[in-house]
Write a structure and sequence with these properties.
The complex is a heterodimer. Chain A has 17 helices and seven strands. Chain A is α/β, with parallel strands linked by helices. A four-stranded parallel sheet of chain A has the order 5-4-6-7, with helices on both faces. In chain A, strands 1-2-3 form a three-stranded parallel sheet, sandwiched between helices. Chain B contains 13 helices and nine strands. Chain B is α/β, with parallel strands linked by helices. In chain B, helix 2 packs parallel to helix 3, helix 4 crosses helix 9 and helix 10 packs across helix 11. The radius of gyration of chain B is 22 Å and the shape is globular. Classes of the chains: A alpha/beta, B alpha/beta. The complex binds iron/sulfur cluster (SF4) (2 copies). The site of one iron/sulfur cluster (SF4) has 13 residues of chain B, from helix 2, helix 3 and helix 11.
Amino acid sequence: MPGMAELTGDSLSASLVRAAFLAQTRWKALHTRTARAYLQYHALAASLELFKAGSVVPWVSYLFPTEILTSHGLTPMIPEVGSATLTGSDLREAVENAAARMSLARDVCSYHRTALAAVENGMLPAPTMCLGTTPLCLGKECLLEMLATRYGVPFREIRVPLPPDEGEAPPAVVAEVAEQIRELHEDIGRWTGRRPDLRRAVLLSNRAAKAWGDLMAERLAGRLELNGRKTFAIVFLGQLLWGTEAGAKDFERLLTERGRSDLVPPAFDGRRPKRLLWLHTVPHHDHAFFELMEKQGAYVVFEEMGQMHQELIDPDDPWPGLARRLTDHTLWGTSARRARLNIALAKKLRADGAIHFNHWGCRHGLGSLPVVRAAFIEAGIPFLAIDGDALARGGPNQEKALQQLESFLELL
Amino acid sequence: MPNAYYTCHLVPLGLLSTLGFTPKWLGARLPHQTTPRRDATTVHPTTCPYVTRLVAAAEALLEERPPDDVLVIAGGCDAMRRMGDLLAAYHPERTFVLAVPRASTEHDVRAFAAELVRLEQWLKERAVQTADAAATPTASATTGAAALGAPDYPSAPEPGGVFVVGGPMSDDSLLELLSTLGAKVAGLESCTFPDRWQPLATAGLDALPSDLSALAGQVLQLAICPRFSTTLRKAHLARRLEQTKASCVIYARQSFCDPGAYDALLVAELAAERGLPFLELEVGFPLEASGPLRTRVEAFLEAQLLDEDILGGDFLDDDLLGGDELLAGDLLTSQREPGHLPEPGPARSE
Ligand code: SF4
Ligand code: SF4
């Protein structure tokens, strides 16, 4: 298998290696025919295009409404996805070394630290524009705006007021956010000189959202059990593909048994497994947690972050629908709101417990922890918070976290 | 008058006074480290020391003070916003979280004005319940450092000295340390120092009953702190460095602070562009200006004296070394386009 370094170069040989590697990944997708393998292939193919000379590279926040990019034929560069991909590749050591040399404080979110090290060292493509959203965290806005300043490219931020603790964001708030998205869509067209086709992007996004929404509804109703650790990867990579033809087809593959055959929960030889709700991000490269769970007869039945894009957008008036995905996003809002929604989720799933992954440097997630934990305890749902780094493999925290997890699973 | 304990000088203090509350900075009311805490309100250890200590302070005050005293938390960053969430969970009637935008566009001013209206309503509802709600606010009630409990310059800043940048500072001990070591202070950019809070101290005294938009605009013009828009912050800091004719820069960064982390990078770049030596220190809250911090500041200042005395100020511009003085590390960490060598910059110490 070629190295990422060869894949991301701009020379003729790099493009030949790229073509060969993509062919391999495609072959794997064709062979397994699972949604996950296809998503991987399409996400990789789209991302590698960003490395070509002259590409328009929009660095965007994780929750950015990417349909306004695909409307212009653009692929987003999401720092969190970029960092997770690089640290899972043979560029891991190079990017870690680059991050270690960097003078940015080590206590910031490691997704962002890694992304900065990567772009400064040619392992991720430099931005043509940086587009943020106030949800979910301030750290990524700091990163995006700093990059925009360094590279002399435009920065825009969609400002999204916090939703109320109960109920939906008021229509006036949704209208204001919708207007910001509309203006930004226009700006992107002006900056790139490309003609938009938002209707097509929304229709394709809706196909994907319908498939994903149906699947999530089945899971919530208890009619379908999937491995939440694995479904996490679907939305995580899927963020690059909303509004594309490939994305629509890949999400639709989830509706067939074959398409989701690599998402099935582990087999437990007739024992009733402990079903856990996973909160926040996951350790992308550290399988020890999930292996331990499996050994102890437990698995992740549902992931908080999978709750994305389950509603359809009106193609004739897309702005309010795109806005509502931000204003009412389940992870946005106060800690009390996050606690309330997650407890409702755990009850609906009849989960045996919840695990909060305390990702290194995430003020948003860690900050809400005391309130979320207290609410779970009050609701009588077993709750464990484990410290870790989503990009780490092993590391100093792992052993302690594994011990905590083991005791927790025993108690369940 | 009841007290309104606030966390950040972006809260228009005059507005608090006008509505019958005495503004008091929470950072000046820290309980002793050993004061017992509820487990449930203990924040994660990777939270900035400022928020960590303010949560403890707020909890202690809300326990011991009369129920009319309130908290006004400026939720300008994730940590502070979550602090607001936490205290609101336990003291919903006494905690107000004010959302503060990161820029000062028309949209931001509108959004912030709406937040101020919300704050006004909230305070009015509470002020009605107090006996002396009609007490007349005065500018003097809010303008003195002592009244607020906010730190001040120990002596007036002088051009040509050390320019200090930081987040919230509990006191003037870093400035005192610089002066003890014989260095002048050219200026200070910190959340808690006079250049920030003095203009804001009276903000809002005459805002009511008029439109709060003007007040919102005023605060957002003044509030160019580390969590603010990078573009505006960069221009602001560049101006401050020029105005104060700084000779070197010290950044006192709170650990576990995202805005501070990115701001320190920005300031390091501004210093490098101007050929100013730069030192980044990781500090806590309260700030401990003794021990290792003192040693590092001392070494930093001494290194500059050495440069000036022995090598002459223009050493780095000399062609003597033909550019070989650049270390491989500089090349690797270069934040410029590939193919461009980094300009010789200051040593960065951490
Ligand atoms: S993990 Fe937290 S800090 Fe990092 S990108 Fe996500 S929300 Fe932001
Ligand atoms: S800006 Fe930094 S120092 Fe200030 S409260 Fe937020 S995290 Fe703490």
